[in-house]
Amino acid sequence: MYWNLSSIHFPKQEFREPTAEVVRWTYVCENSSQLCNRRLIKFNQEAQTLQTCQMSCGIPPLWPKPTGQIKFLNRKAISFSKDSIKFRSLKTENFSVKRLLIGATDIFLSNLKSSSESRGAGEGNVDIFVTIIGGTTATALRLDVDESYKLEITSNITNTKVSIKSATLFGARHALETLSQLIWFDDSLGLYKIVTGIKFEDIPAFKYRGIMLDTGSNFISVDGIKRTLNAMAMNKLNTLHWHITNELSFPFCYENCEYAKYGAASSNKIYKTEEITEIMDYATMRGIRVVLEFNNNLDDLGVLLSDIFDRRIQFEKSSHFINSSDSLEHIKINGIHSLVPEMIHLGGVGVDHFLDENNFYSIEDPILSGYSAHEYVSDFQSATPKSDLLEKLKVSKVVLWPETLEQFKNFSKTSDKDMLIVHVSSESSERSQDKFFKAGYKVIISHSDVWFLNRLLPWSAVYAHRPWQNYSNAQTDKILGAEVCLWTENIDENSLDARLWPNAAAFAEVVWSNFAETRVGFATDRLDVQRQRMLRNGIMAAPIQPQWCSLNPGECS
Hints:
Its EC number is 3.2.1.52. The chain is an alpha/beta fold.
């Protein structure tokens, strides 16, 4: 396999040593192009592997590319055995932060030590020092959390020192992820290697960098979701927007699973609250927040009940759910309040599809239109008469699809703009986010023509899209971030990885690094290396070019 280093967050995987073969090729760095050229090896010449060449030829193939300037103190790499890398210091004043930090370092070490067996002692030891500065107590990822970090690697004759400094656990975790990309296994030596003499700072361009995963259309197992979280962490994406239910399926199991009994595809295709909690804990350890989406209209269960009730009863029953104290919303709130740390997505997409030929619901009906945004949320609150929604769920942000707000006559005049976030999903040419900028809302962008991954666009189209490049500073300040969406009407667990990756990885660099350069030729070889890392770690990412191109960097891009 091309890249023999596990990322910091993968469970142990069995590694099989490749069979011995005659080495015919070596790689030489061309200084003018800063590319590694493949050449036939000469008699008695020592071979250099492609990955060893790439790590010392130009900028190392980091993904996403750090936003700070990379400074080289030298251009060396030293070899070491997997038993000689140690965490010497984890400095933080908060016990909870330290517990999570220890978990992150354990993941880093366990994956490194499970990837390949060293054949020898190497040239020295690698000592890692992690410092959380500022006394932060953040153990959950919120929009105001600092994810920046500083990384420096220096060495002397026998020791390499890695210094990581960050204001938060999450920045330190990102630094460990980057460090894992600066370590590789050299097949020709049978030893690990690490870049020495390098330092830089790194900070994400956007606070919200997400993937929307629809598990309502087709069920995705807990293992499949965890695998997605693993790949997200590799690419420093920090938000899983979990579209857990829709009109086709209600797999959320609350208490006795009464609704899931009728709404899930089968009894083994449901998500129990303890499984959701497990996924959230798994995500937190990998620097990711999980945002659950439960639509606050008839989308979740009303249409689904048409299999049981006749159409009029269906809509009447749904109306009862919305307005009574024992409503579906009441059940949702009481079932998920412990699962929502900061933010919840109330959906609202496709409200108008509830207008049928019998006009059971008119667009003039107060249930669906004429509200201010505040009244919309207040109606959701009214489902729990003795409890305020935001206090009950302990959320400070509510995300809505734009179709929801556009139903309300006074959406531009609401006083709740600090609470409500608009998730824009129209095509990029429509510039529909402009009206929400003007109204003063914060937005998350998911342009459907480029960032809906089920549309099978090439990674280059995903990478080249920078919708904010022509915006004013005032408009850009309203953008919390962006999200790629995967609707699963024709996707299931068997095709999940290839549909998401590496396109979502291309997107990850857009929202982390936000470089003005959009020409894909500058990114192709680095993304190809990142894809090989993902393959090594059990993510079945689709290829971006023929294998010959991977073995001959720069020739195809």
